[in-house]
Design a protein that fits this description.
Elements lengths: L4 E11 L7 E6 L33 E4 L2 E4 L9 H5 L9 E4 H11 L5 E5 L7 H13 L7 E6 L5 H7 L5 E6 L4 H8 L4 H12 L3 E8 L7 H12 L7 E5 L17 H13 L5 E2 L4
Parallel strand pairs: 2-6, 6-7, 7-8, 8-9, 9-10, 10-11
Antiparallel strand pairs: 1-2, 1-5, 3-4
Length: about 290
């Protein structure tokens, strides 16, 4: 059995918004994007054991032992004060899990699950762990009925996807923007790999959903939506789309100053894409 490990920022033992059905979700720590509008900015950085989070914790769940942050999950009340105190967008509550740990967790909850989704941060930074976990699930008689999904920004290269896809049932992929400079201004990266990943996944029949975040005045423009429509038309059909509207909950202080996207703008964009013959198009619940 694999001894591979991964840093886990958070685990949801039940979710109905991270893929089809009821899913166990792993949020792995670390991201190769630095999106200014990230709704989980504490999953981006890796803890450097500076200790700035310790005085912020009201229950003394954090301490510094031999120069390393120690987290006591039993003392934690999930107030997230430490996340707000961290100067590098890291999470001192990260815990290391092995493949065997996650298999055991799946078995505990299997009766209530349709599958597992690996998210982040950016899940594919830990693609060896994902491959080993998904392969082990496929070989286990009591777990092989569970579907195996990845939520990704698409920055993984073609060889990485080729390695993962044989054990992966579906990928939910985010396209942050279509204009190259706009994408770079939002993420600090270009979008060439994300677009190439979407094509590769669609050609392989593994692109479960293409997601697009509409940010007022930036990615909600007609030009961006037209580019989204043109890109989707170039892929094997049909492609499931999900439009999400920017919200300020959980974002960094500078992003909190941006306006939230109005619901009617989201609905208008969805109607435009449907009229163009694209979809299905999903929207978040109100």
């Amino acid at each position: 059995m694999s001894s591979l490990q991964a840093p886990v920022s958070k685990i949801l033992t039940w979710s109905c918004v991270d893929g089809p059905g009821n899913r166990l979700v792993l949020f792995l720590q670390g991201c190769n994007y630095n999106c200014i509008t990230c709704h989980n900015p504490h999953t981006i950085g890796q803890c450097n054991d500076c200790g700035d989070c310790i005085p912020a914790c009201p229950t003394s769940a954090l301490s510094l032992v031999d120069g390393k942050i120690r987290f006591d999950a039993n003392a934690c009340t999930n107030c997230d004060a430490c996340l707000k105190a961290c100067p590098i967008d890291a999470n001192p509550m990260v815990q290391t899990y092995t493949v065997e740990d996650i298999l055991a967790l799946l078995r505990e909850n299997a009766d209530f699950l349709s599958g597992i989704t690996i998210s982040g941060g950016e899940a594919t930074l830990h693609h060896s762990f994902i491959k080993a976990l998904f392969a082990a699930m496929g070989e286990a008689e009591d777990l092989k009925h569970l579907t195996r999904f990845i939520d990704s920004n698409g920055h993984l290269g073609a060889d990485g996807w080729t390695d993962l896809l044989p054990v992966t049932d579906g990928v939910m992929l985010d396209i942050k923007a279509f204009g190259v400079q706009l994408h770079k201004s939002l993420t600090k990266r270009t979008n060439s790999r994300s677009l190439a990943s979407a094509r590769q996944l669609a050609d392989a029949g593994k692109l479960y959903e293409l997601r697009y975040l509409m940010i007022p005045g930036r990615t909600d423009t007609d030009a961006e939506l037209d580019a989204l429509a043109d890109f989707v038309r170039s892929l094997p059909q049909p492609i499931r789309l999900r439009l999400n509207g920017f919200r300020t909950h959980g974002v960094r202080p500078e992003a909190a100053k941006l306006p939230a996207l109005a619901r009617d703008r989201l609905e208008t964009a969805a109607a435009k894409l449907k009229t163009a013959g694209l979809g299905p198009v999903a929207l978040p619940a109100i």
